[in-house]
Amino acid sequence: MLNENTIAIIKSTVPVLEKYGTDITKRFYQLLFTNHPELLNVFNQTNQQKGRQQTALANAVYAAAVHIDNLAAILPVVKQIGHKHRSLGIQPEAYPIVGENLLAAIKDVLGDAATDEILQAWGEAYGVIADAFIGVEAEMYKETEDQAGGWSGFRAFRIDRKVQESDVITSFYLVPQDGKAIASFLPGQYVTVQMKIPGEEYTHMRQYSLSDSPDKPYYRISVKREDSRAKEPAGKVSVYLHESLNEGDELLLSAPAGDFILDQAGTRPVVFIGGGVGFTPLMSMMQTVLANQPERKITFIQAAQNEQVHAMKAHVQELAEKNDQLSVHICYEKPLSQDRTVNHYDHEGFIDAKYLKSVLPSEEADIYLCGPVPFMKAVYAALQANQVPTQRIHYEFFGPAGSIGA
């Protein structure tokens, strides 16, 4: 436990972290990768280039400082990050390395303002916080390995089927190479793919949501080819998956992880709102409700640019035809000419408060939201405009955590 003096010192640094937090974490990653380049095998360099990882870490450090006298308040964040770490194979020996470089970054950025007293206090605080992470992750490793069909580390899977779902999204049906059972998962969870791409110096790790229900003898991931946005780095892994891997090829997976999961005990109507490839965890949730809760009303709202990039449209419509409990609504931001004349859709343009009001259930519902950050921010604001309680809105970021509320 931390003494009162250490807590007071950490609390006194909160305004500094609010102002310089991202500068500190940027410097931290520079030091970390210079001193330990082997960690480039673990970290997503695209998120580094976009600054998302630095911002996420800055927010986590800030939250730890604010709640240093009540770390139980950040336990949900610890568990969320713990899922990521477990899926990536982060081990306890990594924490001293992180602590050493984080303190060095604080000193580099703050200069003389980072007194020995402040650095010592943060060293003690980091030790307590690291112990919390290590403890949570140790339980996760044990649970993952001990469950039926579970395993530790990365396991070889074979691409059994490769199905093009749209111009930019392809599904990969994965079965274990050893032919043994696979671990079940909670609807909404993801797997981490570990990949060595020819010509690349470092291993790549990417996390993909499981897009089918848990009761299958395979895992399905539905991957968007991220190579169309000129202002952002191309998705090396997604492009390689789409263009270079075929049925019969091998992929290495860690066991399913993640805390963005369906409340399967809930009985309220449920609304799934997916933008682009953000529909993937929602598909798993929706199909689970259909299989297990035939009386639970489902509203499934899927947004896409147009018909060409709209994945699994026919499959979802077929499910709606077979299940009266399911209501499907399709939104195209920029429909093509043939969309207007031939292909069915329900709404043109962005999802706004007025449109949501017309399709949301009249009774209180649980909302699950996933998609690009701008999409989620806009939908979240539209939900709030419709007086949807914050505690009923559940969402997930693809990549480092952020914020979509005001």
Automatic annotation (TrEMBL):
PROSITE patterns, sorted: FAD_FR, GLOBIN
Catalytic activity entry: 2 nitric oxide + NADH + 2 O2 = 2 nitrate + NAD(+) + H(+); 2 nitric oxide + NADPH + 2 O2 = 2 nitrate + NADP(+) + H(+)
Positions bound to heme b: 85
Classification via InterPro entries: Cbr1-like_FAD-bd_dom, FAD-bd_FR_type, Flavoprot_Pyr_Nucl_cyt_Rdtase, FNR_nucleotide-bd, Globin, Globin-like_sf, Globin/Proto, Hmp
An example Gene Ontology molecular-function term: heme binding
Keyword set includes Nucleus: no
GO terms under biological process: cellular response to nitrosative stress; nitric oxide catabolic process; response to toxic substance
Annotated region described as Reductase, given as residue ranges: 149-406
Domain Globin positions: 1-138
Site feature location: Involved in heme-bound ligand stabilization and O-O bond activation: 29
Site (Influences the redox potential of the prosthetic heme and FAD groups): 84, 396
UniProtKB keywords: Detoxification, FAD, Flavoprotein, Heme, Iron, Metal-binding, NAD, NADP, Oxidoreductase, Oxygen transport, Transport
Cofactor note: Binds 1 heme b (iron(II)-protoporphyrin IX) group per subunit.
A Pfam family matched in the record: NAD_binding_1
Keyword Transcription regulation on entry: no
Residue intervals of the FAD-binding FR-type domain: 152-263
Family to which this protein belongs: Belongs to the globin family. Two-domain flavohemoproteins subfamily.
PANTHER family: FLAVOHEMOPROTEIN
General function of this protein: Is involved in NO detoxification in an aerobic process, termed nitric oxide dioxygenase (NOD) reaction that utilizes O(2) and NAD(P)H to convert NO to nitrate, which protects the bacterium from various noxious nitrogen compounds. Therefore, plays a central role in the inducible response to nitrosative stress.
Name this polypeptide is given: Flavohemoprotein
Organism, scientific name: Paenibacillus albiflavus
